[in-house]
Amino acid sequence: MDSENLNEWLDLWEKKKAPWHLDFVHEAIEKHAEILMTSPKAKNKIFVPLCGKTVDMKYLADLGNEIVGLEASETAVKDFFTEHDIEYTTEDVPSVKGKLFRSNDQKIKIYCCDLFLFSADIESGFSGIWDRGSYEAMEPKHRDECARVMKTLVYPGIGYLLEMPDRELDKGPPFCVPVDVVESNFGPGCKVVKLLEVTKTPPDFLAIVKAVNVFRLHFQ
Ligand SMILES: C[S@@+](CC[C@H](N)C(=O)[O-])C[C@H]1O[C@@H](n2cnc3c(N)ncnc32)[C@H](O)[C@@H]1O
Q: Is the C-beta atom of 212 inside 6 A of ligand 1?
């Protein structure tokens, strides 16, 4: 990630501008959380890349899951813990040139760092990945790099949910990435299947996108 791009996101958080943030649980999580929670290989440990301060993390933690978020903005991470009244500790993580925020009850951890420094060497064994506003938020030039990080974390049977808007291909973020491009980015062995069309979106969002869909990624 070039620092200019990352700084734009950090600036938005400093200015308290997060128009993508939902103050309710995402429909895909409300209806299909179980997809992230079952795996022949792993315990229920869910990765939420580029998590912002999404309330989905609290919801999934309350269902009994261990949550691992990742977010570059320290403001967003602190807001998440403060807004949910969750006590936490912090520690430096030199390998990602960032910090780890950990809830005192050990249910929620958030790495505050650049996604591109993360990999399975830092954390692995996820039963599910909830990707809203990560892959779709990346500038096209960073898309391969984003998929490269995610591919270190996936294996057959992992539950992977990916949100994607339906809109003109050159507009974004959020960007629309056609299914065959996602498959080739994450492939070979990746099959992308539409799970649902989101009906609860922020009021002005449907003015800029035709629809918002959530896909399930299957890996062989
Ligand atoms: C569109 S928002 C999505 C937030 C969240 N998933 C949600 O549903 O509310 C994208 C987030 O990614 C963060 N971000 C952007 N690039 C990043 C990077 N390279 N590493 C870590 N976080 C990044 C931004 O600060 C922002 O909070």
A: no
Q: What is the band of 1 on the pLDDT scale with cuts at 50, 70, 90?
A: low
Average pLDDT, the chain: 95
- pLDDT tops 90 at residue 80: yes
What's the CA-to-centroid distance between 7 and ligand 1, angstroms?
11
Task: Confirm or reject: Cβ of 21 under 6 Å from ligand 1.
Answer: yes
Which distant-in-sequence residues (6+ apart) come within 8 Å of 168 by Cβ?
A: 176
Query: By alpha-carbon position, which residue is closest to atom 4 of ligand 1?
Result: 52
CATH no. of 3-219? 3.40.50.150
pLDDT of 2 strictly over 70: no
> Cα dist. 48→52, 67, 168, 188 in Å?
9, 7, 26, 23
**Of all protein residues, whose CA lies closest to atom 13 belonging to ligand 1?**
50
Say which residues have a Cβ less than 8 Å from residue 100's Cβ, sequence separation at least 6. Answer: 90, 91, 92, 93, 109, 110, 111, 112
Beta bridge partners of 105: none
Domain boundaries, the chain: 3-219
With residues binned 3-state (H G I as helix, E B as strand, rest as coil), the percentages for the chain, rounded to 5, are: 30, 25, 45
